[in-house]
Amino acid sequence: MMIASSTIQRLFAALILFLHAVESDNPKSDQGSVGGCSGVPGIPGSPGHNGLPGRDGLKGDDGMKGAKGDRGDKGAIGKTGPKGSLGQRGSMGPIGIKGGKGTKGNLGERGEPGPQGESGTGNSVINWKQCVWKRNDAKDTGLIQECVFKKRHSFTALKVTYAANMRVACNSGSCCGRWYITFNGAECSGPMTIEGVLRMSNSRDDPLRHRQIEGLCENIPTGSIRVAVHVGNCQRYVSSDRYTGWNSVSRIMIEEYPQSQN
């Protein structure tokens, strides 16, 4: 290894100063000297080579645990591992919120007819029949027409509607005619009769008009019922000239309804 000349000169000067200092501090040197002067120091030799590295020292004791450092940045997401085996089935969770209404499906095939149900108790017709005829009837009193109806249930009432042309005429004073309904020959008593009256006073007119009589009769037994229309006298009136069904269709309409519970 080469050393610069300026460095050598500085080292040499420092060595001379050192030797002078040592000489002045050593009294023996004065006694041994015989009036001579110290010689000039020689040129310093070249530095020696570095020695071999020494052996590792003994391991020291563990130091105290340092304070917790700051949390590091989140690492990159790793690769997805292989699918694990199927675990055991868990317990049933709570019922979810009801979903929205789905789209309407296609119409299914028509099923077989079901068995006939029991008779209802609503306000609907259970059974009905009508009798129609076209006949001019000049009777002043008596039977006009009969219609046989088969009543099916004991808890029902019969509604009867009679419609026809009717008139009563009188030459003087006043006159009255009564048209009424009978069931097996007797008028209704539950709750009252089904009837209609037509009265005229001091008229020679022939007032043929289409008129209608109707009503409900309760507490009629089951089976065949002869429903009939009659014409007769009004109370406190004598017989007069009456006419029924002139040149028009007459009809009796019979309907079986659930009987009222009131």
Annotate the secondary structure layout.
Elements: H1 5-25, H2 27-32, E1 127-134, E2 142-151, E3 156-169, E4 174-183, E5 186-187, E6 195-201, E7 209-217, E8 223-233, E9 241-244, E10 249-258
If you had to describe this structure to a student in words, what would you say it looks like?
It is rod-shaped, with a radius of gyration of 70 Å. Strand 4 and strand 5 (186-187) form a beta hairpin. The longest helix has 21 residues, at 5-25. It has 2 helices and 10 strands, in the order H-H-E-E-E-E-E-E-E-E-E-E. Helix content is 10%, strand content 32%. With 262 residues, it is mostly beta strands. Strands 1, 3, 7, 9 and 10 form a 5-stranded antiparallel β-sheet that branches. Strands 2, 4, 5, 6 and 8 form a 5-stranded antiparallel β-sheet that branches. It has a domain at 127-258: Sandwich (Jelly Rolls), CATH 2.60.120.
Binned, the helix content reads 10-25%
How many strands appear in the DSSP assignment?
10
Dominant shape? rod-shaped
Q: What class do helices, strands and sheet pairing give? A: mainly beta
Low-confidence stretches: 28-34
Q: Per CATH, what is the topology of the domain at 127-258?
A: Jelly Rolls
Strand content: 25-35%
